[in-house]
Amino acid sequence: MRGLTPRPSERMVGIGLVNLATLTWATNMVLGRWLRDDIGPLTLAAARFLIASLFFAALLRRRPAEERRLGRDRWLLLGMALSGVAVFTPTLYLGLRFTTAVNATLINGFGPLITGLLAAVLIREPMSTRQLTGAIVGLAGVIVLISGGSLAFWQAVRGNVGDLIVLGAVALWGLYSVLGHQVMRHRSALSATALSVFLGLLPLLLAAAWEVRTFPVSAHSQLILAVLYIGIAPAVIGFLSWNAGIRRLGASGAMVFYNMLPLYGALLGYLFLGESIGSAHLLGGALIIGGGLWAAQGRS
User: Which of 11, 132, 228, 242 could disulfide-link to 21, CB 3.0 to 4.6 Å?
Assistant: First the structure.
Protein backbone atom coordinates (compact mmCIF):
# COMPACT_ATOMS: atom_id res chain seq x y z
CA MET A 1 0.00 0.00 0.00
CA ARG A 2 2.97 2.34 0.50
CA GLY A 3 3.30 4.85 -2.32
CA LEU A 4 -0.37 4.68 -3.39
CA THR A 5 -2.67 7.68 -3.22
CA PRO A 6 -4.63 7.51 0.06
CA ARG A 7 -8.40 7.12 -0.08
CA PRO A 8 -10.43 10.27 0.75
CA SER A 9 -11.43 8.84 4.13
CA GLU A 10 -7.82 7.99 4.99
CA ARG A 11 -6.71 11.42 3.87
CA MET A 12 -9.30 13.11 6.10
CA VAL A 13 -8.17 11.02 9.07
CA GLY A 14 -4.56 11.96 8.34
CA ILE A 15 -5.42 15.67 8.11
CA GLY A 16 -7.26 15.45 11.43
CA LEU A 17 -4.30 13.70 13.09
CA VAL A 18 -1.63 16.18 12.01
CA ASN A 19 -3.87 19.11 12.98
CA LEU A 20 -4.41 17.54 16.39
CA ALA A 21 -0.63 17.26 16.75
CA THR A 22 0.02 20.90 15.85
CA LEU A 23 -2.73 22.06 18.21
CA THR A 24 -1.21 20.18 21.16
CA TRP A 25 2.25 21.54 20.31
CA ALA A 26 0.85 25.07 20.23
CA THR A 27 -0.51 24.60 23.77
CA ASN A 28 2.92 23.26 24.76
CA MET A 29 4.55 26.51 23.66
CA VAL A 30 2.04 28.61 25.56
CA LEU A 31 2.56 26.57 28.74
CA GLY A 32 6.34 26.54 28.30
CA ARG A 33 6.27 30.33 28.20
CA TRP A 34 3.94 30.49 31.22
CA LEU A 35 6.12 28.16 33.34
CA ARG A 36 9.45 29.79 32.50
CA ASP A 37 9.96 31.19 36.03
CA ASP A 38 8.86 28.04 37.91
CA ILE A 39 10.87 25.26 36.29
CA GLY A 40 14.04 25.09 34.19
CA PRO A 41 13.90 24.06 30.51
CA LEU A 42 15.89 20.85 31.06
CA THR A 43 13.79 19.85 34.06
CA LEU A 44 10.54 20.53 32.24
CA ALA A 45 11.69 18.51 29.22
CA ALA A 46 12.79 15.61 31.46
CA ALA A 47 9.48 15.61 33.33
CA ARG A 48 7.57 15.75 30.06
CA PHE A 49 9.23 12.71 28.55
CA LEU A 50 9.38 10.76 31.80
CA ILE A 51 5.58 10.93 31.93
CA ALA A 52 5.36 10.14 28.21
CA SER A 53 7.68 7.14 28.54
CA LEU A 54 5.37 5.55 31.10
CA PHE A 55 2.46 5.79 28.66
CA PHE A 56 4.55 4.50 25.75
CA ALA A 57 5.78 1.55 27.82
CA ALA A 58 2.19 0.57 28.57
CA LEU A 59 1.20 0.92 24.89
CA LEU A 60 4.16 -1.15 23.67
CA ARG A 61 3.42 -4.08 25.96
CA ARG A 62 0.78 -5.41 23.55
CA ARG A 63 2.87 -4.90 20.43
CA PRO A 64 4.92 -7.67 18.73
CA ALA A 65 8.37 -8.32 20.16
CA GLU A 66 10.19 -6.83 17.17
CA GLU A 67 8.37 -3.53 17.73
CA ARG A 68 9.89 -3.33 21.22
CA ARG A 69 13.48 -4.04 20.17
CA LEU A 70 16.19 -1.98 18.55
CA GLY A 71 17.09 -3.31 15.12
CA ARG A 72 19.40 -2.30 12.31
CA ASP A 73 17.90 1.18 12.48
CA ARG A 74 19.21 1.74 16.03
CA TRP A 75 21.48 4.59 14.94
CA LEU A 76 18.61 6.34 13.19
CA LEU A 77 16.52 5.90 16.34
CA LEU A 78 19.37 7.32 18.41
CA GLY A 79 19.50 10.29 16.06
CA MET A 80 15.77 10.79 16.54
CA ALA A 81 16.25 10.57 20.30
CA LEU A 82 19.00 13.18 20.40
CA SER A 83 17.53 15.63 17.89
CA GLY A 84 13.82 15.42 18.70
CA VAL A 85 13.80 14.49 22.39
CA ALA A 86 17.03 15.16 24.30
CA VAL A 87 18.06 18.42 22.58
CA PHE A 88 15.03 19.84 20.74
CA THR A 89 12.67 20.14 23.69
CA PRO A 90 15.00 21.88 26.19
CA THR A 91 16.23 24.16 23.38
CA LEU A 92 12.64 25.15 22.64
CA TYR A 93 11.86 25.78 26.32
CA LEU A 94 15.08 27.80 26.66
CA GLY A 95 14.03 29.97 23.74
CA LEU A 96 10.62 30.51 25.33
CA ARG A 97 12.35 32.10 28.32
CA PHE A 98 13.44 34.97 26.09
CA THR A 99 10.71 35.30 23.48
CA THR A 100 6.93 35.17 23.31
CA ALA A 101 4.76 32.19 22.48
CA VAL A 102 3.47 34.12 19.45
CA ASN A 103 6.99 34.58 18.06
CA ALA A 104 7.96 30.97 18.81
CA THR A 105 4.96 29.47 17.07
CA LEU A 106 5.32 31.72 14.03
CA ILE A 107 9.00 30.77 13.68
CA ASN A 108 7.95 27.11 13.81
CA GLY A 109 6.05 27.74 10.59
CA PHE A 110 9.50 27.77 8.96
CA GLY A 111 9.84 24.05 9.84
CA PRO A 112 8.66 22.58 6.51
CA LEU A 113 11.25 24.61 4.61
CA ILE A 114 14.13 23.64 6.90
CA THR A 115 13.01 20.01 6.70
CA GLY A 116 13.05 20.18 2.92
CA LEU A 117 16.60 21.50 2.92
CA LEU A 118 17.76 18.81 5.34
CA ALA A 119 16.06 16.11 3.28
CA ALA A 120 17.87 17.34 0.18
CA VAL A 121 21.23 17.21 1.93
CA LEU A 122 20.83 14.04 4.03
CA ILE A 123 18.71 11.73 1.89
CA ARG A 124 19.22 13.41 -1.49
CA GLU A 125 15.63 14.53 -1.98
CA PRO A 126 16.19 17.37 -4.50
CA MET A 127 14.45 20.70 -3.97
CA SER A 128 12.41 22.00 -6.89
CA THR A 129 12.32 25.64 -7.99
CA ARG A 130 8.97 25.94 -6.21
CA GLN A 131 10.48 24.66 -2.98
CA LEU A 132 13.46 26.98 -3.22
CA THR A 133 11.18 29.97 -3.87
CA GLY A 134 9.04 29.02 -0.90
CA ALA A 135 12.13 28.72 1.29
CA ILE A 136 13.27 32.24 0.33
CA VAL A 137 9.81 33.67 1.04
CA GLY A 138 9.70 31.86 4.39
CA LEU A 139 13.17 33.16 5.27
CA ALA A 140 11.98 36.69 4.53
CA GLY A 141 9.10 36.09 6.94
CA VAL A 142 11.49 34.96 9.70
CA ILE A 143 13.63 38.08 9.19
CA VAL A 144 10.56 40.32 9.42
CA LEU A 145 9.46 38.51 12.55
CA ILE A 146 12.84 38.65 14.31
CA SER A 147 13.44 42.29 13.33
CA GLY A 148 9.96 43.33 14.44
CA GLY A 149 9.62 45.16 11.15
CA SER A 150 12.14 47.79 12.28
CA LEU A 151 15.03 49.03 10.13
CA ALA A 152 17.03 49.52 13.33
CA PHE A 153 17.49 45.74 13.33
CA TRP A 154 19.83 46.00 10.36
CA GLN A 155 21.79 48.85 11.94
CA ALA A 156 22.33 47.11 15.28
CA VAL A 157 22.44 43.58 13.79
CA ARG A 158 20.95 42.12 16.92
CA GLY A 159 17.60 40.39 17.20
CA ASN A 160 15.77 38.68 20.00
CA VAL A 161 18.05 35.91 21.24
CA GLY A 162 14.99 33.81 22.08
CA ASP A 163 13.82 33.93 18.47
CA LEU A 164 17.21 32.67 17.29
CA ILE A 165 17.23 29.86 19.86
CA VAL A 166 13.74 28.78 18.75
CA LEU A 167 14.94 28.84 15.13
CA GLY A 168 17.71 26.43 16.14
CA ALA A 169 15.13 24.20 17.79
CA VAL A 170 13.12 24.16 14.55
CA ALA A 171 16.21 22.94 12.69
CA LEU A 172 16.53 20.10 15.21
CA TRP A 173 12.89 19.18 14.64
CA GLY A 174 13.51 19.10 10.90
CA LEU A 175 16.34 16.61 11.47
CA TYR A 176 14.06 14.49 13.70
CA SER A 177 11.38 14.46 10.97
CA VAL A 178 13.81 13.38 8.25
CA LEU A 179 15.22 10.58 10.42
CA GLY A 180 11.72 9.54 11.48
CA HIS A 181 10.62 9.29 7.85
CA GLN A 182 13.44 6.82 7.25
CA VAL A 183 12.73 4.78 10.41
CA MET A 184 9.00 4.46 9.70
CA ARG A 185 9.70 2.68 6.46
CA HIS A 186 10.18 -0.42 8.63
CA ARG A 187 8.47 0.42 11.95
CA SER A 188 5.08 1.55 13.17
CA ALA A 189 4.61 5.13 14.33
CA LEU A 190 4.19 3.88 17.91
CA SER A 191 7.43 1.88 17.89
CA ALA A 192 9.51 4.68 16.32
CA THR A 193 8.11 7.32 18.66
CA ALA A 194 8.37 5.24 21.84
CA LEU A 195 11.88 3.91 21.28
CA SER A 196 13.24 7.36 20.43
CA VAL A 197 11.68 8.71 23.64
CA PHE A 198 13.23 5.90 25.70
CA LEU A 199 16.68 6.55 24.21
CA GLY A 200 16.47 10.29 24.77
CA LEU A 201 15.17 10.14 28.34
CA LEU A 202 18.41 9.27 30.18
CA PRO A 203 20.46 12.28 28.98
CA LEU A 204 17.49 14.52 29.80
CA LEU A 205 17.27 13.15 33.35
CA LEU A 206 21.01 13.65 33.89
CA ALA A 207 20.82 17.21 32.56
CA ALA A 208 17.78 17.96 34.76
CA ALA A 209 19.61 16.65 37.85
CA TRP A 210 22.37 19.17 37.12
CA GLU A 211 19.97 22.03 36.38
CA VAL A 212 17.90 21.82 39.57
CA ARG A 213 21.00 22.74 41.60
CA THR A 214 20.98 26.23 40.13
CA PHE A 215 17.33 26.46 39.07
CA PRO A 216 15.19 24.80 41.76
CA VAL A 217 11.62 23.92 40.88
CA SER A 218 8.95 26.18 42.36
CA ALA A 219 6.40 23.45 42.99
CA HIS A 220 2.70 24.29 43.18
CA SER A 221 -0.54 22.62 42.12
CA GLN A 222 -0.83 24.53 38.82
CA LEU A 223 2.72 23.54 37.87
CA ILE A 224 2.01 19.87 38.57
CA LEU A 225 -1.17 19.91 36.48
CA ALA A 226 0.58 21.74 33.64
CA VAL A 227 3.49 19.27 33.60
CA LEU A 228 1.09 16.32 33.59
CA TYR A 229 -0.75 17.85 30.64
CA ILE A 230 2.52 18.51 28.77
CA GLY A 231 3.62 14.91 29.36
CA ILE A 232 0.36 13.49 28.00
CA ALA A 233 -0.97 15.81 25.29
CA PRO A 234 2.02 17.28 23.40
CA ALA A 235 4.41 14.39 24.13
CA VAL A 236 2.19 11.33 23.72
CA ILE A 237 -0.87 12.42 21.74
CA GLY A 238 1.01 15.00 19.66
CA PHE A 239 3.96 12.79 18.66
CA LEU A 240 1.79 9.74 17.95
CA SER A 241 -0.77 11.76 15.98
CA TRP A 242 1.93 13.37 13.89
CA ASN A 243 3.67 10.12 13.00
CA ALA A 244 0.36 8.37 12.33
CA GLY A 245 -0.59 11.25 10.05
CA ILE A 246 2.68 10.89 8.16
CA ARG A 247 1.87 7.23 7.50
CA ARG A 248 -1.45 8.26 5.89
CA LEU A 249 -0.45 11.46 4.08
CA GLY A 250 3.25 10.94 3.55
CA ALA A 251 5.89 13.33 4.85
CA SER A 252 5.09 16.02 2.26
CA GLY A 253 1.35 15.98 2.89
CA ALA A 254 1.79 16.12 6.66
CA MET A 255 4.34 18.95 6.58
CA VAL A 256 1.86 21.20 4.77
CA PHE A 257 -0.32 21.15 7.87
CA TYR A 258 2.62 21.76 10.20
CA ASN A 259 2.07 25.37 9.17
CA MET A 260 -1.14 25.37 11.21
CA LEU A 261 1.00 25.49 14.38
CA PRO A 262 1.70 29.24 14.07
CA LEU A 263 -2.00 29.97 13.66
CA TYR A 264 -2.99 27.90 16.68
CA GLY A 265 -0.10 29.26 18.76
CA ALA A 266 -0.70 32.91 17.94
CA LEU A 267 -4.38 32.55 18.80
CA LEU A 268 -3.64 30.78 22.10
CA GLY A 269 -0.94 33.28 23.07
CA TYR A 270 -3.36 36.13 22.38
CA LEU A 271 -6.25 34.52 24.26
CA PHE A 272 -4.47 33.12 27.34
CA LEU A 273 -1.23 35.10 27.75
CA GLY A 274 -2.45 38.51 26.69
CA GLU A 275 0.30 38.75 24.06
CA SER A 276 -0.20 41.31 21.34
CA ILE A 277 -0.27 40.56 17.63
CA GLY A 278 1.15 43.43 15.60
CA SER A 279 1.70 44.13 11.94
CA ALA A 280 5.14 42.47 12.00
CA HIS A 281 3.57 39.24 13.30
CA LEU A 282 0.89 39.36 10.62
CA LEU A 283 3.32 40.08 7.78
CA GLY A 284 5.98 37.65 8.99
CA GLY A 285 3.41 34.93 9.65
CA ALA A 286 1.83 35.41 6.23
CA LEU A 287 5.22 35.09 4.51
CA ILE A 288 6.21 32.01 6.52
CA ILE A 289 2.89 30.22 6.04
CA GLY A 290 2.55 31.25 2.41
CA GLY A 291 6.09 30.14 1.63
CA GLY A 292 5.53 26.84 3.40
CA LEU A 293 2.32 26.07 1.53
CA TRP A 294 3.88 27.03 -1.80
CA ALA A 295 6.90 24.84 -1.15
CA ALA A 296 4.87 21.87 0.11
CA GLN A 297 2.75 21.82 -3.06
CA GLY A 298 5.92 21.20 -5.00
CA ARG A 299 6.85 18.14 -2.90
CA SER A 300 3.94 16.00 -4.02
Answer: 242
